[in-house]
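Build the 3D complex.
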Amino acid sequence: MTGQPEHVVIVGAGLGGLRTAQQLRSAGLQGRVSIVGAEPRLPYDRPPLSKQLLTGEWDAERTGLAGQDAFDELGVRAHLGNPAVALRPGDRTHELELADGAALHADAVVIATGLVARELPDQPAHVHTLRTLDDALALRAALETADSLLVVGAGFIGAEVASSARTRGVAVTVVEALDVPAVHALGPQLGPLAGRLLTEGGVELHTGAKITRFGDAPHGVAVELADGRQLAADVALVGIGAVPRLDWLAGTGLDTSAGIACGPTGRVHGMDGVWALGDVAAWHDPAHGGRHRHEHWTSAGDQAAVVARDVLAAPPPPPAVPYCWSDQFGLKIQILGRPELGEEVVPLHGTGLDGGPVRGTVAAYVAGDRVVAVAGFGAARLVARYRPLVAAGAPVSEARATAAALS
Ligand SMILES: Cc1cc2nc3c(=O)[nH]c(=O)nc-3n(C[C@H](O)[C@H](O)[C@H](O)COP(=O)(O)OP(=O)(O)OC[C@H]3O[C@@H](n4cnc5c(N)ncnc54)[C@H](O)[C@@H]3O)c2cc1C
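Done.
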């Protein structure tokens, strides 16, 4: 592809898809833009689904990210409720087949199809998962008449749902198969602080507890744990992560086993004229090597800016530091950088790691002597001060000096 593309098709009408359309226009794309969405809805925001929507503070409309007028203004044609079912790459033009049999031809394709919630084996149909607005509305309706909720999985989604249910006065039990809650996001040293938020918020937490089967409960849901214990609740949510659903790319020969493999600007490995971004895309990380999928709201927007410029052969924006947050039990957990690369954790502020209050605790994740990530609990102003250090991979001595200067 040389010069500007004539037609860009964006697959996925979520956050990343919408931001790509907006960024393409603001970067000067003149040609046609189409956006294809599996859900019959205009793009909406997912973070409130486990928070304000579930507590009842927000109605569904407030989660909307863009109305039809915004699409009209951008000059974007939306095909909603009509998922892409196949991609047939060509030399110059790619063909995208939609579920209703229609075919779209594009010289640039951007894939932002997100994830689907993972389920447990033999999970009954009335057990909830949470990924879409419809999922959230169904869970909220169920909580309206429930006295008790069983949450499977103590990651961020499980904990946020637990927190929202507690706000509604529902008794909550959380069952986590691993020994440490939120260990994938926070690691083994800081994960226990997320566990404390749960128990201090009135949740009954069972860690190292594997569910072996769902049983019968007269009303609601029952589960049996590996040690024989039985738990029951009026409503159950399984929050055990989410996976890319890429069966529609099966015919392309792409390796999609760990998300869509991409270069550092989102170009899909092995396929010219195709980009991927957001939760579904495993971008090459030039700072640390390897490929990584960020399941973060902020990354989808940051990556959309990079992809839009790359599609137009314009220089990329400055690199962004990965960032995510979780709101639970009246407190914001924030993570800058890539904690999973850390070899040790260095406390910077607060005493949460010594058994003191979780709120106000900030710590650095360090690899070699370099800061690769910083996490904070209810300490937004402090966390913000470490962004330049994480961006630069600064020595831990600098983080310690910053902590001393801020104390
Ligand atoms: C309940 C919940 C709470 C969250 N809270 C936070 C938070 O507090 N902080 C944070 O940093 N992140 C949070 N996230 C993550 C954040 O929302 C995601 O990182 C972000 O939405 C990713 O954007 P995306 O465009 O990659 O995917 P999505 O927003 O999931 O959009 C993908 C879209 O593609 C569509 N699609 C799928 N397959 C096809 C197909 N074949 N054809 C056409 N369309 C298709 C889907 O229907 C979907 O609408 C949360 C996520 C959830 C589910």
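The chain has three domains: 7-116+242-311, 119-238, 330-406.
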